[in-house]
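Please decode residue identities from the backbone states below.
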């Protein structure tokens, strides 16, 4: 509910507040300081748990004490590698030159997507004709508990020049990408996903406008939607409409645990996670919450912004509370 001092809430940067076109979110920008590393990963939201760790911030009044950290689990089954997408850079935009697919692509990927014919892979690639390369990968939701079979196909960026990108792509041909190769614990990530959908909502719930008094003509609406002259309704006026199911990016989420298959027993509750089931694959645990309901597709990349304040100053996890 809104306060008299806070008439409305909600950033103007997110207009128009329409439903997302697809749940398959992706990043268009990546940042790295090292040569030849894959800069992103894909996963599925599982649910939340709690961690106990020692506060390492010397300026905090809780320095040296154990703190309770809410955290989100993201299941990250290994990514399969389809091939390479070559780009040509111009003054105005980057356009796709061609997709160079590897051999022995799984049948269940071909079943859901019309892929070009498998050629000789990277043997036909001429580096003089392209500006940079990106890795084409596919997810494996059939290995999880979400009850989905259709994989997502996306691009992942590789740091370095095009010669380095080609070398990494050749190394990954016929192999899988595991999350522990890419991320390290106690680093920062950016997470992109589609939020929970809440359907059609009024301005009170959507923007937090004040509910008017008893004698007012309208109770759950703004007092005025605009001037008589010029007779127009500004887009800044809080109106009823779609709430939720928007694509959102959260920056600098602290990565607390990068779990392998041997660590699955440490996080799985006795009856499984609510609305999800049991984690069966490698996973990551991120401090705080992330957008979307359980089973939602999550795009992850290494942090791109400078972190000014660390909310959870920890360096070691003492206990996992299921």
């Amino acid at each position: 509910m809104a306060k008299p001092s806070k008439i409305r809430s909600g950033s103007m940067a997110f207009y128009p507040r329409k439903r997302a076109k697809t749940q398959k979110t992706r990043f268009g920008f990546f940042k790295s300081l090292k040569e030849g590393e894959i800069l992103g990963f894909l996963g599925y939201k599982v649910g939340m748990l709690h961690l106990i760790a020692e506060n390492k911030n010397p300026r905090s009044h809780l320095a040296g004490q154990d703190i309770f950290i809410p955290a989100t689990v993201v299941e990250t089954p290994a990514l399969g590698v389809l091939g390479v997408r070559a780009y040509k850079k111009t003054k105005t935009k980057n356009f796709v030159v061609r997709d160079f697919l590897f051999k022995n692509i799984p049948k269940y990927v071909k079943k859901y997507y019309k892929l070009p014919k498998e050629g000789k892979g990277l043997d036909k690639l001429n580096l003089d004709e392209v500006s940079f390369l990106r890795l084409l990968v596919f997810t494996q939701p059939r290995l999880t508990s979400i009850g989905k079979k259709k994989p997502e196909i996306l691009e992942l960026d590789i740091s370095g020049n095009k010669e380095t990108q080609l070398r990494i792509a050749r190394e990954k041909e016929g192999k899988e990408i595991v999350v522990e190769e890419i991320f390290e614990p106690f680093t920062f990530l950016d997470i992109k996903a589609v939020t929970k959908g809440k359907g059609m909502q009024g301005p009170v719930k959507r923007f937090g406008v004040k509910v008017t008094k008893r004698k007012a003509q309208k109770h759950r609406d703004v007092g005025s939607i605009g001037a008589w002259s010029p007779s127009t309704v500004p887009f800044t006026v809080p109106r009823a409409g779609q709430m939720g199911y928007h694509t959102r990016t959260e920056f600098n989420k602290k990565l607390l645990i990068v779990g392998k298959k041997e660590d699955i027993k440490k996080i799985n509750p006795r009856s499984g996670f609510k609305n999800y089931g049991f984690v069966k694959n490698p996973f990551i645990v991120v401090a705080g919450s992330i957008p979307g309901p359980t089973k939602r597709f999550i795009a992850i990349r290494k942090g791109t912004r400078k972190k000014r304040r660390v909310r959870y100053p920890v360096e070691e996890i003492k206990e996992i509370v299921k």
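Observation: Residues 79-177 form a domain with the Ribosomal Protein L3; Chain: B; domain 2, fold (CATH 3.30.1430.10).
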